[in-house]
Structure formats: C-alpha cells, structure tokens
Amino acid sequence: MPNGDVVIPADFAKRLKIQNAEARLDEALDVARKISEAGVPLLPNPDHAAIFVDPPHLVAGPLKEVGYVAGWDTRSYPSPVDGHDYINVPTGLPQESPARNQGWFDYVAVVHPVDSDAREHMLSQGYGNPFLHHMTWGIVPPAKGSRKDLEYASDLIPYAVLCRDIIGRAIGEEPGTLILALPETVVESQKFKERLPNWLGDLKEGEFQIEAMQGGGYLIQFFVRTGGRIEVALRVGTRQTFNPKSVHKISKDEISAVQSG
C-alpha cells in the first residue's frame, strides 16, 4: 500500500489478524502524506510498530515467518503504561531482508502484559487482542559522513527541533516530548552542555529529554498523535532497538492504551 515515497506491507492483514490494524495503518499513511507535503523527508518503510498482545506468540510467530528475529538485540524493555506493567520484546528484520522493500517495519515491539491487571486493562479498551498500538515513521537524517559525534549532534539536534515544529503545524496537534538519546561521549561533553540551549531553540523544560543511548548511536523520537498513535524517529548508528530510559519515559508519560481516533 504505497503513499508517495512511503510504503506499508500489502500482505499485513494476511500475516497478522489485528482488529484495529486497517484504521491505524490508514492513519499512518495520512500522517506520512502530511509530513511529506510539509517538506520533511521520510524513509520508505516504517522504523517500527508496537503491538500489544497476550500471549506474545500470536504476533511473534507470524513475524518470524516474515523474517523477523525475535529478541534480536538481546534486550527487553519494561513499559509502565497507564500505571500497569508491560514488557516490550523487540523483533528485528535483518538488514538484507526483502521484506523491507515490501514496507515491513525495521522493528516490531511485541508488548505483553506482566500480570492479570495489565491484561484486563489492555483488553478492556476494545481494540482487540492483539492490537496495533502505534507506528513510527523514520525521518531521513542528515548525512553524518566522517564528522565526529559532537559535530554531528550540532546538526542533528536543531534539525530534529525544526522537524518537530514543522510536523506539529502540518498535523495540527502539539507534538510530544522530544526525546534525544545520544552517544554517551556527547552527553557528557562540557561543550555539548554549553551549546545545547542554542540547538534546542525555543523548547522549554519538559518539552525535551536528553539521555545517553545504550550501545551508541542516536535515536531521537517524538509522538505526533494523541495517545501515542503515530510517532516519528531519527535513527543513526544504533545497535539496539530502543533506549531503556526512553521506553520508560514514553510508556509512562507519552502513550496510553486508551487512545482516541
């Protein structure tokens, strides 16, 4: 199902039986169209999707048939959503997988409830089991080339701030927190601390979060739709799907199992 330069898998419904998938995928394509028309370039296939499910094999099994590797980064991510405990276990597509060209996500977060209270909360929303919680489009990042990490951050961060402003205007909703997971050497640099206020522009305290990215690389994210339905990300040189501190912040403050739209 192409939309301009982006694509989502035409065989999604055959692979995964998810009640709310058609509505969420349509919304993701609509958001992608608005973002692209506003001048922010997107990567062709989505960065990731998050699917809530119990038991996990209902999603992990079909994804394995597509070519995903469950637990590819040997990480799991505790996710406190709406005051309930969930665990996010990512699956990842190998870089050479032809499924990427078909629009399959680079990663899928398979999110399952830890206990019966979380499960009942998930099921009570009426979206089905499993349900497609959110999709994340990847923004084309500036080329890093041979630049050192701090020099690249001086380009990437203002670009992310600009994209957030443009996308917020294009979508017509206030974007979520700008979460910037950066190489540890950058975050700990005195020069970074001195220059950061200029890079962040008019962003106020509480509108951004700075953290060190486990495993290295850059992962900058923010949500663009209520309840955490659609997100965008800038990803450069990461070795794992997410950053634990980012996941905790996003799960606790940015998303909900109770979604409008």
Describe this structure in words.
- With 261 residues, the chain is α+β, with helices and mostly antiparallel strands.
- It folds into 2 domains: 136 residues, no CATH class; 106 residues.
- The strands form 2 sheets. Strands 3, 4, 5, 6, 7, 8, 9, 10, 11 and 12 form a 10-stranded mixed β-sheet that branches. It has a two-stranded antiparallel ribbon with strand order 1-2.
- A hairpin with a 2-residue loop joins strand 5 and strand 6.
- Helix 2 crosses helix 5.
- It is globular.
Helix/strand-derived category reads alpha+beta
- Largest sheet geometry: 10 strands, mixed
The helix-strand sequence is: EEHHEHEEEEHEHEHHEEEH
Number of domains: 2
Distance N to C terminus: 21 Å
How many β strands by DSSP?
12
Write out key terms for the chains shown.
2 domains, two-stranded antiparallel ribbon, alpha+beta, globular, 12 strands, 261 residues, single chain, 10-stranded mixed sheet
